[in-house]
Amino acid sequence: MLHIKVLGSGCRNCVNTANLIEKKAAELGVPVKLEKVTGMAEIMQAGVMSTPGVVVDGKLVHAGGVPSPKTVAEWLKTPAPSSPA
Q1: 82, part of any domain
Q2: CB distance 72 to 40 below 8 Å
Q3: Count of structural domains, the chain
Q4: Which residues contact 12 (CB under 8 A, 6 or more apart)?
Q5: pTM, 2 dp
Q6: Range of the domain at 10
Q7: Which of 7, 41, 51, 85 has its CA 20 to 30 A from that of 35?
Q8: DSSP state, residue 62
Q9: How confident is the model at residue 83 (pLDDT cuts 50, 70, 90)?
Q10: Catalytic amino acids?
């Protein structure tokens, strides 16, 4: 399961980004845990100077503006590490 954080104040672009990620994940059948982060300290700590920021499994992948659906789909196609059997 991918852990995705949308970092931002809760503005329209932040909400649209979170909605787009949820929609694409459902379309692709990818399980995600989506977290909306509004605390400025955590946003700044992640290095986001322009919101919304998106962090996928601990890695900042986007900052500023709503990402394209194609970009979101690429994030979701990243293979998850396999668990030991």
Answers
A1: no
A2: no
A3: 1
A4: none
A5: 0.88
A6: 2-76
A7: 85
A8: E
A9: very low
A10: 11, 14
Cβ atoms < 10 Å from Cβ of 70: 8
- Who contacts 29 (Cβ-Cβ below 8 Å, separation ≥6)? none
CA distance 43 to 36: 11
CA atoms of 29 and 44, how far apart (whole Å): 32
Mean of all residue pLDDT scores within the chain: 91
Within-domain flag for 85: no
Q: Which two tokens stand for residue 67?
A: 């990402």
Place of tokens 């946003």: 43
> Who's near 49: CB < 8 A, 6+ residues apart?
63, 64
- The tokens for 9 are 């104040």
pLDDT band at 69; cut points 50, 70, 90 = very high
